[in-house]
Amino acid sequence: MKKILSVLPLIALAVFVHAQKLPRVIILATGGTIAGAGASSDRAGYTAGKIPIDQLVGSIPTVKKIAEITGEQVASVGSQDMTVDIWKKLAVRINEIFKNNEADGIVVTHGTDTQEETAYFLDLVVTSEKPVVLTGSMRPATAISADGPKNLYDAITIAIDPKSKGRGVLVSFNEGIYDAREVMKMSSTKTNAFGSPNTGAVDQAYDGTVEYYSKSERQVNPKSPVVITADTKLPRVDIVYMYADAPADEIDLLIGKKVDGIVIAGVGNGNFNKAYMDAVKRAVAAGIIVCRSSRTPSGRVVLHDEINDDELGTIVSDDLTPQKARILLMLGLTKTKDKKQLQNFFFKY
Ligand code: ASP
């Protein structure tokens, strides 16, 4: 009895120390405007990826009160230069961090131009339920009212909130939280740059609090369909943009290049003209998977509507934008070349 009483203070101390432990967040930095530096505070022009992650975190000192932060520089690029190799690097590191229990949540800082693509790629390949939140900024750190520090602070708030678990990869921007599958860059210059045209935001972050309002029915994680390793070779899938009186030369060029897949950014319900129709027939005959999507920002592309996909040999993107349909097709093609199975991926993810 005496022995038990003597260790009680130690147990109490251990419980106290544990209770004081802050959630651990790893920030994986990739560059973009959030890490950009401009010539002066009244100019939006800047060089991407100039500011290292430690300096970015230093711009929000109060964050130390809510989380234990570590930063890793994965890349330093403007996101127009984002590559499949960087995607793979991010995916492998995120899965490793969670497998080794190195963090409770991850924030990825990223340029805004292709942020929605990276978010959806990660959404499809991350195998943990723990939160992964992407963010960036529209103004460089040197600008008046730079939006990076607040966006980063909000992203960390979301990454440490237990309610963020099991929601797949999220994008946090201008106090809105968006599902990776739905989000799209909607303004090329404004700080309120992101939106989800089909579904709206799933959540709002405000003053360090997070409130969720909806959850995606197409939740992937942690049931990732594809396992990504550093050696995974992703097939080549290109996007061709349709417009009035478009010649089909690009499709023929891609047939010549023996690509694995083509996503057509069609008009309206994934439509295209006669020149495209004939070229698509040639692509399908060459064994290329052709997916009809739409350049229209909201709505979906419906099987066998104005175009008979069974007859033409095409599949449809459902409501994925062309840039996201490309990602799902690339990942799907690592599993199968069967059109039915590939089509099912588009109705499932
Ligand atoms: N071009 C930049 C990028 O995507 C724009 C930004 O970050 O806002 O990296």
What is the fourth-level CATH superfamily of the largest domain? L-asparaginase, N-terminal domain
Kindly report the average pLDDT value: 91
Helix content: 25-40%
Strand order of the largest sheet: 2-1-3-4-5-6-9-10
Order of helices and strands: HEHEHEHEHEEEEEEEHEHEHEHH
The domain tally reads: 2
CATH class of the largest domain: Alpha Beta
Task: Give the CATH topology of the largest domain.
Answer: Rossmann fold
Say which molecules are bound, naming each kind only once. aspartic acid
The CATH architecture of the largest domain can be named as 3-Layer(aba) Sandwich
Given as residue ranges, the uncertain stretches (5+ residues, pLDDT < 50) are none
Shape: globular
Q: Whole-number radius of gyration?
A: 22 Å
Helix count equals 10
For the report, how would you describe the main beta sheet? 8 strands, mixed
* Gap between N and C termini: 59 Å
Number of strands: 14
Question: What is the SS-derived class?
Answer: alpha/beta
